[in-house]
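Input C-alpha cells:
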C-alpha cells in the first residue's frame, strides 16, 4: 500500500495513473477505494485463489558429478 501511495506524489504521476485507471475502466475514483478493497481481502480468500490458480507442480532434481 505504501508504494501505491508514493507513486501519487508528483502531479505528472497523478495524471498518468488517472488516465490509466480511466483507460482500464477502473473509474476516476479508483484511488479512493483501492486501499479499502485491498484491506477487505481475507486470508481465506487468498488461500482459495492460490489453490485454484497454482495447480501445476514440478520437481527439479540435481545430481552432483561424482
Amino acid at each position: 500500500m505504501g508504494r501505491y501511495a508514493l507513486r501519487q506524489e508528483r502531479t505528472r504521476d497523478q495524471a498518468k495513473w488517472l488516465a490509466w485507471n480511466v483507460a482500464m475502466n477502473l473509474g476516476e475514483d479508483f484511488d479512493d477505494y483501492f486501499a479499502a478493497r485491498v484491506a477487505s481481502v481475507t486470508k481465506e480468500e487468498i488461500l482459495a485463489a492460490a489453490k485454484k490458480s497454482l495447480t501445476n507442480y514440478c520437481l527439479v532434481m540435481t545430481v552432483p558429478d561424482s
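Residues 2-53 form one domain. The helical segments are 2-6, 11-23, 30-39, 43-53.
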